[in-house]
Design a protein that fits this description.
With 310 residues, chain A is an all-alpha fold. Chain A has 12 helices and 2 strands. Chain B has 2 domains: 132 residues, Rossmann fold (3-Layer(aba) Sandwich); 137 residues, Rossmann fold (3-Layer(aba) Sandwich). The chains are: A mainly alpha (310), B alpha/beta (335), C mainly alpha (386). Chains A and C meet through α3, α4, α10 and α12 of A and α6, α12, α14 and α15 of C.
Chain lengths: 310, 335, 386
Amino acid sequence: MMNIFTWDVLSGVLRTMIALSTPFLFAALGETFSQLSGVVNLGVDGIMLLAGFFAFYAVFLTGNVWLGLLLAMLVGLVMGLMMSFVSVTLKAQQGISGIGLQMFGLGMSSLLFKVLVGTVTSVTGFRPVKIPLLGDIPFIGSILFNNNVLVYSAFLLVPLSWWVLEKTTLGLKIKAVGQNPAAADSVGINVNRIRYFSVCLGAVLAGVAGASLSISIANLFQDNLTSGQGFIAVALVYFGGWSPVGVLGGALLFSLANSAQLWLQVLGINVPASLAVMLPYVLTIVVLTVAVNRGKQPAALNKQFFRGEN
Amino acid sequence: MKLNRIVTAIVLLAVISATAFAAGEKEAAASTAAKPLRIAVVMPSATTDMAFSQSMWNALLKVQAAMGGPSALELKYSENMFNVPDAAAALRDYASQGFDIVIGHGSQYGSSIREVAPDFPEVVFAWGTDVNNFGLPNVYAYTAAAEQGGYVNGVLAALLNKTGKIGVTGPIEVGDAKTYIDGFVNGVNSVGKNIAISKTWTGSFSDVALMTAAAKTHIANGAGALTGSSQSVVGSIGACKEAGNVLWFGTQSDQATLAPALTVASQVYDWEGMLNDIIANRKAGKLGGDAFVLTLANGGLKVAYNHGFALPADVKAKADAAIAGIKNGSIKATP
Amino acid sequence: MAFKFPVKSLAGREPSHGEGFEFFLRTAIPFLGVIAALLISAIILLFLKTNPIVAYSAMFQGAFGSVNGWSQSLVKATPLLLVGLGVCIAFRASVINVGGEGQIILGALAGTWFALTFPDLPRFILIPGCMTAGFLAGAFWGLIPGFLKARYKVNEILSTIMMNSIALQFMNFLLQGPMMDPEGIKAGTFLAQSARLPPTSWLARLIPRTMLHSGVYVALIFAILVYIFLWRTTIGYQIRAVGLNPRASRYSGINVPFNQMLSLTIAGGLSGLAGVIEVMGVHRRILEGLTGGYGFTGIVAALLGSLHPLGMLPASVLFGGLLVGANTMQRAVQIPAALINAILGLIVLFVSGSALWIHQIIKKRKTAAIVVALPKAAAASEETKS
């Protein structure tokens, strides 16, 4: 029996947690904006895939990670426009159009990968940047302050999103549109414009999430690279009760459970692997059942807005 | 109602034109009359997966090149056929289109082959990985003794290891992912150094992100070498590369291109010899009834050393000795 | 060819004809969406240096051009219809069931377990027994998120997605050990599949040399049952009331959480039934990739059928045919299979986007009806005045 509770193992668990949570954070924070404005975007996974591919492809061709990131954001924007056009302008059933977007992203990314690249190739993605002084703090330094730019941005995005949502007029407008679009409309807020903005913002962040998979974590692209992570990200928004801090908690908890189960296996603790892999999913449901964060759902979530009819 | 008529007209137009196209296509298909050998293959993942499906597709392309290109051997594929009824439809479709050899490259296609093959007694069917040809005269079964190359990789990994720890990143403990890893563990233990092997299973053949995290976990725990199976191990290879000093041992396809400095060797499934045998048998009038097992001895399995990696001569000698031992039966790859 | 639909009149005469027109619109316009998506996809095909006409005719031919094609399309339509019926019931109670994948797996596992445990039962008990086991297991997998939603207000999108992953790992766990085919262990192949079901539990094949099995009848019967359930029973009425207006139904004494839980449970049961029918009719054992993505594509089929049990009959056959035809097209013109997903995605986007059209046309007609009706009403009031 090895000693499980050593500092090394603990710091390893936490480091893996931070790495795993990055794509969830980007995607789920983005989805939070989208949902607060009243639009459920189930297509996050598809956006992550297509954007992840383009990020990879740009780095594959030029070696420039920033170009890859930019392209991923652009692809996210375009797919966000698609989603908002179908769901906001054309008033589609959001859950369904999102599944369409996901299938489209899954198919297009694999198709382009096959036609343009051909076979699995790895690239050099974002490199860790150690923050001076802070990075030298024992234990914490190596976990928190020795990551790459995308990881730092993901965590900085949490307070930033909170600030935008709670302290700015824009945030108030987004929430007003999600709570009561007819009332928002009557005080002169352009409901559709706000929804377009929120969905596109969410999609751009989903694009960054895809890039963080393909040019920061895995440093390659392959068919269905996300394996459904985008759906988990959507679930984490519900988990987080539509607040950036809640989303952070959900992303960290889910990643912690995943990281812990990997460590359990590595350390040779005798648990059947499939049951260990189940752990994050079971834990998420259990925590949500026990925790108290209900009744905050935007009232107009998943509802189409017909001007002058509601 | 003007709109009604427009809608109706569009729907009718679409239906009529679709039927017209369909009718035209039927005639066009009938008039193709060339005489190359025709092989079709149905695969569960993409032809570019760097693993199981790619190993078969590459072998087919090699056979095609050796026979003189598309004019001598016509190839068709159906990829990503993870849905079995789709695969069954594809198998039947290829057989009824007059393909000479139809390959179901996935162990989940067994029951489909079993149903389709009796209806096309003149067509050769091959499927794997399994050893069961259902007693049908026109079915070949094939499999790979993945534990053999696993054993050799294990010997190499143990001899080169300096940290006392080796990590295994697998998808689900089934099929050749299991047998390869069983052989690998056995190979490591045969060297007699005190090396701890830890295994992780991600529960998915495709989850690259979790596989990457698993590999990084092994590395953080001090593993000096990693191996693993399935198309998601490209994530593990990436983790080795990022760490910079963790060795990689591949299987199924030659994975050296993914980490040229760190890949020591890959076990390669080379279906080419088996395909040539099936083609030759067919010419001789034998349409099935055998089970092929790729082994090191019959050349179906190869250990591809990566020339970019400076392998010490004494280590290579011991690995070659292990290969020879497995070939002549003096070494058993699994206990 | 002149279709004439009487204008729905506000005076209340023959409202059913107006509904008939709405029904026509709701069914016809999704088809236009499909055609529009195929036109866009034709551009992608041109980029791949493929003739779209050749490709699409292969698609149509593959799906509906032969007995084999038809039977393939029906084989696909069977699970799509069952899963879609569940989605439809849940949707009527304002619950979104994304848990089809997991429910299919649980149903398949339970049915297989039943058949392998009681192989000696006579056929007429064994087959219904397997189906019941599958239905109950799927229902149980739907009941959990249903209960969590009713009792703890846990969002069902979250919980059903999680339940999918849990079911998948549970199946992996069983197939690696307790349920692994003993023959595979003996042969040393260790394949991730269960033992073969006893032949007495196989569903009959309806057409020789095809996979079409009698499960398609079961699906058909359930479509009618679901229609009767939703429109002809009190519980069905309550479920629909919950979906139409939760607040109003709460005031009128309907137990909203209970009805939502019930609808999710039934939805799970139907998906579980789809799973066990796949096992008994198609695979005859459990193996990897069993769900075939029907848990998700079933949602799309439900949408194509306007979330109505009867509308879903043609919709599931059409969508099944689309899936079959797409594969035929891939074989015929040898394009990467990934394109199929891209095309399906576009179809879903276009079809869901066509909702506005339907809404606006219906609205326009209603306004038109008001315009027609108003002078009459005015005239009538004039008459009473004088």
